[in-house]
Design a protein that fits this description.
The complex is a heterodimer of chains A (186) and B (189). Chain A is mainly alpha-helical. Chain A is 86% helix and 0% strand. Chain B is an all-alpha fold. Classes of the chains: A mainly alpha (186), B mainly alpha (189).
């Protein structure tokens, strides 16, 4: 009985984390990354900061929406298949139901300055929150490998992504090969 | 029946080909639902995107779910959402399980280390895009001011990010609106 109750409580916590982060996630999936990190690392301690960054890195190496990849894999690591389903439902359903129900109402108000301001004002905030994760990524990297590897990977991927407009999946693949070699020869 | 199959294929393609999440997926969805299947016109698609932006939550699934619902009811919505998210979720779970199993091997450990700074760069580019998108509609000085305030609140005062986000949304909704509104610049999508 107690085991059953703790299981239910765990599902409720998973639901709550992904419900609250996505209902506040203006600007889509990427905007929810810092919020999810705060909940699962700082509030609930489901994973360490390093594990989160690793999960995020692996998630970004794959295609598809980032919010649901995060939800599914964190839910799965907490409570297996049902955990993954609970996290996905909490991520997807509330905003979708709102949209289907409010479509006509929003159609009338989509040009209202208040509504427009909302998605505008949130952008610098999201930029700061994402920027914090970027800093954490590099702190973790500098601790894990030689400085010149971090510089080579950072500058190299920026050059390929932004200057040469190489597809992200290809850049990740190159990084994986580089990392494999780095692992073997270190 | 054919509609269900089309929804599955269309959103499977849009989901699996999209990298980076968020806005990046929109052209791929548009290609399927406007150009290939003609479920909505280009204008309607633009309106649906605009309305999506007024609501929180992932853009991808809001778009897929709504378009699926419009095309084939509740079943359509479920099919479109599952086709969008399931392949990538299952792939990531498998990948993480495999990686943790083989992480003692130096090759795998090296690979895991190497993608962290690369993803850092990707997220940095994303953060920069959020900033430039904001700067299209308001002055850089305001953008930087907001940047400084949020950084102060979250980093120095250690405030919960959800509270900061909630505060910003409340401010946008309840602050009085100036009558002369010059912010009419760039488009969201």
């Amino acid at each position: 009985m107690i085991a059953f109750a703790t299981l239910i409580l765990e599902y409720l916590e998973i639901f709550w984390v992904f419900f609250i982060t996505n209902i506040l996630g203006y600007g889509g999936g990427p905007a929810t990354i810092p919020l999810v990190q705060h909940e699962v690392v700082d509030v609930y301690s489901w994973m360490t900061e390093y594990e989160f960054i690793e999960m995020l890195a692996a998630g970004n190496a794959l295609p598809g929406p980032i919010a649901t990849k995060m939800a599914g894999s964190i839910g799965f690591s907490q409570a297996h298949i049902i955990g993954a389903i609970v996290a996905l439902v909490a991520t997807v359903v509330p905003s979708l139901v709102l949209k289907i129900m409010l479509m006509n109402f929003l159609m009338k108000h989509k040009d209202s300055p208040r509504v427009k301001r909302m998605s505008l004002y949130i952008k610098p905030t999201v930029a700061v929150l994402l920027g914090i994760i970027v800093v954490q990524n590099f702190i973790v990297s500098f601790a894990a490998m030689a400085i010149w590897h971090v510089v080579a990977l950072g500058v190299g991927s920026y050059y390929l992504l932004e200057k040469r407009k190489i597809h992200p999946s290809l850049v990740i693949l190159i990084a994986l090969i580089y990392g494999g070699g780095m692992g073997v020869f270190s | 029946m054919k509609k269900y199959k089309d929804l599955t294929m269309g959103f499977l393609r849009a989901g699996v080909l999209g990298f980076g999440g968020g806005m990046a997926c929109l052209p791929l969805i548009q290609r399927e639902v406007v150009d290939k299947y003609g479920w909505v016109t280009e204008d309607e698609f633009g309106e649906i995107v605009a309305i999506s932006n007024t609501l929180p939550g992932p853009i991808n699934t809001k778009m897929a779910g709504y378009l699926g619902y419009r095309t084939a009811g509740v079943t359509g919505a479920m099919i479109a959402v599952c086709a969008t998210i399931l392949p990538s979720v299952i792939l990531l779970i498998l990948l993480l399980e495999t990686l943790t199993r083989f992480r003692e091997y130096s090759v795998v450990a090296g690979m895991l280390q190497a993608i962290v700074p690369v993803v850092g760069v990707m997220l940095g580019i994303m953060a920069w895009q959020f900033l430039t998108a904001a700067a299209k509609e308001m002055k850089w000085l305001l953008v930087l001011g907001q940047l400084a305030i949020v950084a102060l609140l979250v980093v120095t005062l250690n405030l919960h990010p959800a509270i900061v986000v909630g505060g910003v949304i409340a401010l946008a909704l309840f602050m009085p609106v100036k009558t002369q509104n010059t912010a009419n610049g760039g488009d969201e999508s």
